[in-house]
Design goal:
Length: 405
Amino acid sequence: MTEYTLYNADVASGDVVRARGSVSVRGSKLADKAAGPAYDLGGASFVYPALINVHDHFRGNYLPRVGPKEDKYYINWAPWDADLKSSPVFDERANISVEQMYFLSAYKNLFSGVATANDHFPHEINGAYLPRLPIRVIEAYTLSHECSSFDLHWGDGVEIEHARAKERGWPHITHLEEGFDPESQDGVPILEKLGCLDDHCVLIHCIGFSDDDIAKTAKAGASVSWCPASNIFMFNATCKIRKMLRAGINVAIGTDSTATGSVNLLAEMKFARETYREMYGEDLPASVLFRMVTANPAKAFRMADRVGALEPGMDGDVLVLKARKDEPYENLAAATMEDIEFLSVGGVPVLAEKRFEELLPDSGYERLSVGGRAVYARGEPATLYRSVREAVGFKKRLDYLPFDC
């Protein structure tokens, strides 16, 4: 059984920071008392719940991004999809297998401190891959692509998928109002008319929301996935985020895929904060950003009893970052991939500096150099990187992998 204790570090969990606290793991869960070998973090690190990426597309995490030409932004997602599929980068990506794309996407998230993510694709597309990945990619969800005639008809229709979500206690996840044409902007009224707007809903993008849409979403208890980098890149606009927060909507930050979004969740957090400052001339508190990548997505996924905080009995998802700032929330907001010292998923280390080597099984990890230091990553990210470069025929650079091979 995996057991260990991390101590002598400030621990951020929920709305509380435990000064010079400790976190213990026994098996797959967080323990209420010290367990196993103890690691003194020396007051030089901060401990957090591992991060949660509320929205990603694992088949789309390739680079470079594909977007509007000559600053002629899109009116909805459909013309972007046409541009993507006619682009050289799409042809290049075709040399890589679907399995390789799923593992690349898992490492995109892993190397940014993410333990839990959603791949917004139907189960019949991703079901063969998700259980094999080195992070937790949720399988307990229903989905629709979106609520318009541009819908890709994922799932069995909004009403059936939403009813399944209610029956099973799962989230129902859908793109909503990702555009500015009249049909795209009718998303909330459509859900309302179908009787499918409630606290099971996780609504992605929402850039066309009116004030009335915001009020209805708040009243229903639905969650919103905010993906500002993708929104600005495609549409030169994002949602009315300040009004959403003031209305009490549960907002979580998602990356979208790297086809339009940030390279990873750490970069998306920085972009979100910069965007908020540019839009409103005021700061988005780092403590709010922290909740948007921990407790808020856990609530959206209906998993708040398992992930998003560091309390005994919850899953052993732990993130340790080098303390480069004096305050833990600001430290997370400024963090880069090179600052990750330790990450576990369900108690199992998936990224760890050499000092944690004794916690690792004898096999199943690759040793890498990240930021000039030795780290161990679960699986074979370097082997994967080499195979991708071999497939495309040149030394491809993927910015979400912080090492070379």
